[in-house]
Fold:
Amino acid sequence: MRRAAIVIAASLGAVALLWLVIVARTSTEVVSAYRLTDPATIILETMGPPRGWTRFTNVVESTSEVRVKVESWNWLPGPGAAYAVRVELTIHLAEPLADRTVLDASGYQPVRDDGQATVQ
Structure:
């Protein structure tokens, strides 16, 4: 009886893992805007799948720019969700943003400052 339960649990685990390997996918998201919360903290605004995991995967700082890359991991089947949800991601920079440009690393396009800076 115990052996049968272990075999069933292992089979279900294998099916779940196979589902993730076949169906799950990572996609690069467009960063639509950012805002400052303090001189070295920015909040990125993007869209992501409603039942996925959206996160920034790369931040590269230089003296003139900050490049950010945002990706989503989606485990739903099919070509994709018909809708997305707004996602905010907080990034703590090594140095204050100052006059550096924030770039979306997926297309190296400048990201707009939404003008709602809350820096005191």
